[in-house]
Amino acid sequence: MTNEEVLAKGLAERIGIEGSRVKHTAKDKEKVVIEKPMSDHKVALEIVLDALVDSNHGAIGSMDEINAVGHRVVHGGEKFARSVVIDDEVMKAIEECAELAPLHNPPNIMGIEACKELMPEVPMVAVFDTAFHQTMPESSYIYPLPYELYEKHGIRKYGFHGTSHKYVANRAVEILGDKMEDVNIVTCHLGNGASLAAVKQGKSIDTSMGFTPLEGLAMGTRSGDIDPAIVPFIMEKEDLSLEEVNNLLNKKSGVLGISGVSSDFRDIEEAAEEGKERAKLALDKFNSRVKKYVGAYSALMGGLDVLVFTAGLGENSPETREAICEGLEFMGIKIDKEKNNVRGKETIVSTEDSKVKVLVVPTNEELMIARDTMELVK
User: Fold this and answer.
1) What pathway does this protein act in (predicted)?
2) Domain match, 95 and 52 both
């Protein structure tokens, strides 16, 4: 952490199913793929830790070199407005938030428990996806439902991707040499899961994901904003249970639902180029929804100074960035086609005379997690 250098990176995938493997790359070494059965997260973490200290492809000499572990936790509810050192009370609170993020918090908990078992003496820190958005004013986070539902069940907008939105907003200001308190920023975290945030003077004042990550943009498989009356209508017409309709909105909708091709934007772009109309429609829907939020958040903040694109699609698709910015010249957004022809690199893609600076900033949630972890355990 002295120079924030990446010593190793990797991915454990297909945990609990056939073909599980760990991809691991240590600094200045060849990438290795370790194919081993992984029945659960504990086994996966054991393989990861073995890889880190392996004499051939490892990154550290021994486990004693690990001073702390930072965990990304998706949902912290209203309990956590910042990162915290994990103790029994924190674990209990994360478990209580599991019903708000049933796909994410349970595996987050498994990861923490596995690390605690494998490294009982090492301090652990939880970094919450929802924390950055805890600065939203009540008018942004409250839903127009009976107020008692908020008081009883915590039904409100929480927002997600907070670690990413915070990192890219801070980094954009550094690149531009501006002061955070002087600028209004819209950050666009665009990937299979996607959200925008309105960052006014360094604070999130609104974001597109809501009570769950289902609200907002049309995503890979998530519907995003729809008329709520559609839900009972579909249930009746298609004879679906609550669980089935929830599954339909979360896993079968979005650009996958419209295109019928894939939830992967690369596949959809390819299909659109081949002339498949529904694939083109899916991209148009996605881009217009992003554009709508950019306009709305600019109005909410009383103007826009910086627009930032990040995450898989935001960083790697010049076509997406161009399509979103097209027609926003009246707001002072002008894209330089040549500068925009870039993938995965930190750069300014707006023209010299663009009133709003448009940037591509690859997100670095791991670095944010590491910084918060070091800060707390020091």
Assistant:
1) Metabolic intermediate biosynthesis; acetyl-CoA biosynthesis; acetyl-CoA from acetate: step 1/2
2) no
Give the full edge-to-edge strand order of the sheet including 69-73: 69-73, 124-128, 84-85
Beta strands in 27-77 (DSSP E): 32-35, 69-73
Whether residue 243 has pLDDT greater than 80? yes
3 assigned to some structural domain? no
The encoded tokens of residue 131 equal 């924390």
Residue 171 annotated as part of some ligand binding site: no
Alpha-carbon torsion, ordered 306, 312, 318, 322, to 10 deg: -50
Same domain, 317 and 274: yes
The pLDDT of residue 314 is above 90? yes
Domain count across the chain: 3
Q: What is the C-alpha to C-alpha distance for residues 348 and 361, in angstroms, rounded to an integer? A: 9
- Residue 317 phi/psi, 5-degree rounding, is -120, 95
Tokens 């519907």 appear where? 223
**Cα distance between residue 374 and residue 1, in whole Å:** 8
Residue 31 pLDDT greater than 80, yes or no: yes
Whether 184 maps to a domain, the answer reads: yes
Does 365 count as an annotated binding residue? yes
- Which residues are within 8 A (CB) of 167 and not within 5 positions of it... i.e. 6 or more apart? 361, 363, 364, 365, 367, 368
- Answer yes or no: are the C-beta atoms of 308 and 361 closer than 8 Å: yes
Q: How far is it, in rounded angstroms, from Cα 354 to Cα 297?
A: 18
- CATH of residue 205's domain is 3.30.420.40
Same domain assignment for residues 218 and 281: yes
Q: Which listed residue (64, 87, 129, 353) is catalytic? A: 129
Flag whether 265 is marked binding.
Answer: yes
Distance of CA 220 to the CA centre of its chain: 13
Token readout for 37 is 């059965």
Query: By residue range, what is the domain housing residue 46?
Result: 8-64
Last residue of a domain, one of 48, 64, 80: 64
Q: Are 161 and 133 a contacting pair, CB within 8 Å?
A: no
What gap in Å lies between CA 26 and CA 51, rounded to an integer? 9
Report which residue type is found at 35.
E
Q: Is 129 a catalytic residue?
A: yes
Which one-letter amino acid corresponds to residue 74? Answer: V
Ligand-binding annotation for 190, yes or no, is yes
- Distance CA(265)–CA(278), nearest Å, equals 13
pLDDT tens profile 94-115: 998 888 777 788 888 989 998 9
Residue 338's pLDDT is what?
A: 96
Residue 121 has pLDDT above 80, yes or no: yes
Specify whether the CB–CB gap between 249 and 214 falls below 8 A: yes
